[in-house]
Design brief:
Strand content: 25-35%
Strand order of the largest sheet: 3-6-7-8-11-13-12
Number of helices: 11
Protein name: Mre11 DNA-binding domain-containing protein
CATH superfamily of the largest domain: Metallo-dependent phosphatases
Shape: elongated
Keywords: Exonuclease, Hydrolase, Nuclease
Number of strands: 18
Distance between the termini: 110 Å
InterPro entries: Calcineurin-like_PHP (IPR004843), DNA_Repair-Maintenance_Comp (IPR050535), Metallo-depent_PP-like (IPR029052), Mre11_DNA-bd (IPR007281), Mre11_N (IPR041796)
GO molecular function, one term: manganese ion binding
Domain Mre11 DNA-binding: 262-416
Radius of gyration: 30 Å
């Protein structure tokens, strides 16, 4: 009877937020994931990319990361041996990763380096901490049967389809086959250019389980009638709404006589994260600030048992402000200082607009579409700004603009000085009368 437990983790992003109050989070949560996986009896650990957050981690990050990965090598091997490889020299794999619980890893987009350069996963393989896969396969023998892991690390999105087809992995006969990738996949991954080009349906058929890293929230789907699972990241990096809804953790997969059972294991060391979005209509800066304070107090009052670690909160403010108010009037720094001992706060104001800003945007758009000279465009903008300042037309703004545009700065300064002198003398005469 074939039975085997495999832990599938991804996206540790070790070293992310280095130099901030969150710099330890990635290490604490990666360590918990490995420790919990081993405690739950994992005989094999798969890492679906982005162990590190940087292509060139600092020595401090390297030291802490290697110590975490060495936890698997310290655990007694449970009868797992390397029986075969495809597209990879068996002699390139040292005996070190097979002495304990073997770890198989692929590189992610944060680790990928150009041809001819050694990436961090290759370095970890040289140190005997992992077995690296990229367009190749390793086959493990267990006392009860065989399992084959097929891996493809991250490649540029434009080439993903071609390189996948070029590799074209074939399931190993007589083994349970797991396909692992780190890539943007269709509707699961979006960027400024839209959905990723590679889709799950582009995967080769015939595998019992499909795994993908890169996506930072855990999700379960299906492809070719088989499970497709995304473990998600073990640390919060993007602070998106879905990361407030979804827990962080890893998958524990149980292979049992051809059947595959899997469950998501939630980590306990993760900071709480609150995401709030509010749409304002004609609000003053004071009203916005009061809403932020009230919402923060409400969230903190309902926080659970994780208050020993300051939670994260991200507020996205949208809509419109009242006339005379601007985004800059919202004193974010003061609010952050008020709550600095209670929460790690991020406030996004970019989607708040004011009537003045909309009018300026429309003015600039209209001016751009008019067929007039650059001088005339500049004059229109100057007139608009003077109007905002309640300019009373006693000063010849066009003359000033023409002098400045011709680089006649001294003459422009003299004109301004004369006008100021006249205004001062006029005010004194009015007071004496």
């Amino acid at each position: 009877m074939f039975s085997m437990k495999i832990a599938i983790v991804s996206d540790f992003h070790l070293g992310t937020k280095e130099g901030t109050l969150r710099e330890d989070d990635s290490f604490i949560q990666a360590r918990e994931a490995i420790e919990r996986a081993l405690e739950l009896g994992a005989q094999l650990i798969l890492i679906a990319g982005d162990i590190f957050d940087s292509r060139n981690p600092s020595q401090e990050v390297w030291a802490r990361g290697m110590k975490i990965l060495s936890l698997a090598s310290e655990k007694e091997n449970q009868g797992i041996t390397l029986s075969d490889t495809v597209g990879k020299e068996k002699s390139d794999i040292t005996a070190l990763p097979l002495r304990g619980t073997p770890v198989v890893a692929i590189h992610g987009n944060h680790e990928r380096r150009g041809r001819g350069f050694v990436d961090s996963i290759e370095a970890l393989e040289s140190a005997g901490l992992v077995i690296r896969l990229h367009h190749n396969t390793v086959v493990f023998e267990t006392p009860d049967g065989r399992v084959a892991i097929h891996g493809m690390g991250y490649v540029p999105e434009d080439y993903a389809m071609d390189l996948l087809n070029e590799w074209n992995p074939e399931p190993v006969e007589g083994a349970t086959n797991i396909f692992m990738i780190h890539q943007g996949l269709g509707r699961f991954t979006f960027s400024s250019s839209g959905a990723a080009r590679l889709r799950p349906s582009d995967f080769v058929e015939g595998f019992e389980l499909y795994v993908s890293g890169h996506v930072h929230y855990w999700v379960e789907s299906e492809v070719h009638g088989k499970p497709l699972i995304f473990p998600g990241s073990t640390v919060r990096t993007q602070l998106l709404p879905v990361e407030a809804e979804k827990a962080k953790g890893f998958y524990l997969v149980n292979l049992q006589d051809g059947d595959i059972d899997y469950k998501f294991v939630e980590l306990e060391s993760v900071r709480e994260f609150y995401y709030e979005e509010e749409n304002f209509e004609g609000a003053t800066s004071n009203q916005v600030e009061n809403w932020i304070r009230t919402k923060l107090e409400e969230l903190l009052n309902k926080s659970g048992p994780k208050l020993d670690k300051r939670p994260l909160a991200r507020f996205r403010l949208t809509g419109t402000l009242s006339k005379g108010s601007s985004r800059g009037d919202i004193d974010v720094s003061r609010i952050e200082a008020e709550f600095e001992d209670k929460v790690l706060l991020s406030i996004s104001r970019e989607d708040l607009s004011s009537p003045e800003l909309e009018e300026k945007t429309k003015l600039l758009r209209d001016i751009r579409e008019e067929k007039i000279s650059m001088e005339e465009r500049g004059m229109k903008i100057l007139d608009s700004n003077l109007e905002d300042l309640n300019y009373d037309q006693r000063f010849d703004s066009r003359t000033l603009y023409e002098l400045l545009s011709e680089d006649r700065v001294d003459e422009a300064f003299e004109k301004v000085s004369e006008k100021l002198k006249e205004l001062v003398e006029s005010n004194l005469e009015e007071k004496n009368d």
